[in-house]
Write a structure and sequence with these properties.
SH3 type barrels; mainly beta; about 55% strand; single chain; about 70 residues
């Protein structure tokens, strides 16, 4: 596990990979709330929730911004 000062910087608008149920999903950060990152999924065909509250430790930034 990484220390909090070694975490990559995550900001609203960033494209991120979220570890969820042993799979990685791609979304865009809509906002940050404490230790959570609120993500809107890019692929809406999955019939999943529009926004997902992910633990900060489960989110990794990807190259690119939306």
């Amino acid at each position: 596990m990484t220390r909090s000062d070694e975490r990559p910087k995550i900001e609203p608008g960033m494209k991120v990979s979220v570890r969820r149920s042993n799979q990685n999903r791609i979304g865009v950060v809509t906002r940050l709330e404490g230790g959570y990152v609120i993500v809107r999924w890019i692929n809406t065909e999955l019939r999943d929730v529009d926004e997902y509250y992910a633990s900060r430790d489960d989110v990794m930034p990807l190259a690119g911004w939306l």
